[in-house]
């Protein structure tokens, strides 16, 4: 038996891998935004797309500085993921309030979120209006992943966090 899904129809295509997007404002202050709407869109050049609400501080930061980092958090970072997704960077300094460790990126100024399992350093490639969001595409200028879990793909039950909808997170297993 099927039912019509009117509200939250996008959740039919969840769960989605969780990412923390780090960005810098024009005063060099870092901000972190939790996202699940992210995907690769090109191999050559290597591009990733992320859907961000137009009103987000992260969106404003990326459009001004033209760079960002896609940080792939570990399951153990679930509380940071939840907290960064629950408050606005316009109102709260998430880095200090949530005691988030940052590290230097290799090829851009925007910092990484420490202890993440992977990083994609990106330069803004383009952005497109999509309803109440922008689809922001970033050219990947540097990528790193924890070699315990990533060879040419994720292996050996990596500690990746997935968003199921609302405030629900979990893990998935390879068959």
Descriptive overview:
- There is one protein chain.
- The protein is mainly beta.
- It is 11% helix and 39% strand.
- The strands form three sheets. Strands 3-2-6-9-10-5-4 form a seven-stranded antiparallel β-sheet. A three-stranded antiparallel β-sheet has the order 1-11-12, with no helix packed on it.
- A hairpin with an 8-residue loop joins β7 and β8.
- The longest helix has 9 residues.
Secondary structure layout:
Elements: E1 16-17, E2 19-24, E3 30-35, E4 38-42, E5 47-53, H1 57-65, E6 67-72, H2 78-84, H3 94-97, E7 102-103, E8 112-113, E9 118-130, E10 133-145, E11 162-165, E12 168-170
Antiparallel strand pairs: 1-11, 2-3, 2-6, 4-5, 5-10, 6-9, 7-8, 9-10, 11-12
């Amino acid at each position: 038996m099927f039912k019509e899904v009117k509200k939250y129809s996008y959740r039919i295509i969840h769960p989605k891998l969780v990412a923390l997007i780090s960005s810098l404002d024009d005063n060099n202050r870092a901000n972190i935004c939790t996202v699940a709407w992210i995907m690769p869109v090109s191999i050559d050049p290597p591009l990733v797309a992320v859907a961000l609400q137009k009103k987000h501080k992260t969106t404003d930061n990326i459009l001004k500085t033209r760079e960002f980092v896609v940080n792939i958090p570990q399951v153990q970072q679930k509380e940071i993921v939840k907290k960064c997704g629950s408050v606005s960077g316009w109102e709260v300094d998430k880095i200090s309030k949530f005691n988030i460790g940052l590290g230097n990126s290799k090829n851009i100024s925007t910092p990484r979120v420490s202890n993440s399992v992977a990083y994609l350093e990106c330069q803004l490639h383009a952005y497109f209006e999509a309803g109440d969001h922008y689809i922001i595409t970033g050219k990947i200028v540097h990528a790193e992943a924890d070699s315990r879990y990533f060879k040419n793909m994720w292996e050996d039950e990596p500690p990746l966090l997935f968003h199921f909808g609302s405030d629900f997170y979990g893990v998935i297993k390879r068959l």
